[in-house]
Amino acid sequence: IDLSGKNGIVLGVANERSIAWAIAQRLSDAGARLALTYQGDRLKDRVERLAESLERPLTLPCDATDDEQIEQVFEVLGEEFGDISFLIHSIAFANREDLSGRFVDTGREGFRIAMEVSAYSLLPLVRHAAPLMTGGGSVVAMTFDASQRVYPGYNVMGSAKAALEHAVRQLAAEMGPDNIRVNAISAGPLETLAARGITGFRDMRHAHAEKAPLQRNITAEEVAHTALFLCSGMASGITGAVIPVDAGYHIMAV
């Protein structure tokens, strides 16, 4: 797959173990020029160091809860890139206390934060990205099987992922006339910074490896390969889909 001459933005890189970083590397290897975003000064240096290994990258601040910052990001993209071909949404957040204990005890504010960052954020990002996708484009969001099934400790993030998947379908229908495809990848459990906050995460990985048809956990590189495919012309007929990359775990009943 050759993405030479294509530009795009990857949101959600936190460190070298981020799914977003694996995707960014694969897209860059395919020839694409990338913009990476970071949230706050705490992550700025880390993301900029990673970006040094890419070809002519942009690094931009973007708090997904700040409409002004989102608007500024795409203004810069328009000035620097002219147009973009893809957007990777790998953003999710919930308060740590809402990822343990009982789901029924989730507070109103905790529920709102999880929904706003993990699901709603896709809407303004696509709204601002679409005018730059002058030749059509691809939007790829990251989801998880907890949108459909109960995973102990995932709690409110399961609700957020369910909302995100509906947003993917709704946006796919609305953006289709502009030849903008919107899809999601449902990845198996990976050891990322975000995963550390999930109670019982190691047990989750063990269960996946034990019960999945391929009898192993997936790698971030496997997710990145699927994202590359979805961003390429080879996926031109695919939109509104949730594609599992989980070694087949989602098909198993026991």
TrEMBL record:
Residues that span the membrane, as ranges: none
Name of protein: Enoyl-[acyl-carrier-protein] reductase [NADH] FabI
PANTHER family: ENOYL-[ACYL-CARRIER-PROTEIN] REDUCTASE, ENOYL-[ACYL-CARRIER-PROTEIN] REDUCTASE [NADH], CHLOROPLASTIC
GO function terms (MF aspect): enoyl-[acyl-carrier-protein] reductase (NADH) activity
One Pfam short name: adh_short_C2
Keyword Coiled coil among record annotations: no
Keywords: Fatty acid biosynthesis, Fatty acid metabolism, Lipid biosynthesis, Lipid metabolism, Oxidoreductase
Organism: Geodia barretti
Record-stated family: Belongs to the short-chain dehydrogenases/reductases (SDR) family. FabI subfamily.
An example Gene Ontology biological process: fatty acid biosynthetic process
Involved pathway(s): Lipid metabolism
